[in-house]
Amino acid sequence: MALKRAWLAFFLGGICMSIRFTCLAAYIPMGIILARRTQSAFTYLFLVCALSGLLGFLLTIILDRVMFGVWYVHYGILSIALITYVIVKCCLLMQSII
User: Fold this and answer.
1) Which of 17, 38, 49, 77 is a good FRET partner for 10, with 20 to 30 A between their CA atoms?
2) Nearest alpha carbon to residue 15 among 50, 55, 68
3) DSSP per position, 1-14
4) Could you tell me the pTM of the whole model?
5) Which position has the higher pLDDT, 72 or 38?
6) What is the rounded CA–CA span in Å between residue 45 and residue 42?
7) What contacts 24+ positions apart, CB below 8 Å, involve 58-63?
8) What is the mean pLDDT of residues 71-84?
9) Which DSSP letter does residue 77 get?
10) Rounded mean pLDDT of 70-77?
């Protein structure tokens, strides 16, 4: 039961990471502390912490692609999709002026 809860916690951590990368400041130490309590810390770190976090992160990226039609990866305040959107709108505006 504890393994399922840990997997769910790191999966949700991956979703949180897609919104704000600074949440890693909480999830990395938590993963290390939980891994030290197990017999195989290396396996726990990669199969529970890293894998479930990566799946949560990839889920939000794929969901953004399906919902918005663009690959949307956040980088702090700026995001690739926002920059792309602004560039496309500016180009369309310039074409309508010319």
Assistant:
1) 77
2) 55
3) -HHHHHHHHHHHHH
4) 0.68
5) 38
6) 5
7) 58/14, 59/14, 59/15, 60/14, 60/15, 60/18, 60/19, 61/18
8) 62
9) T
10) 65
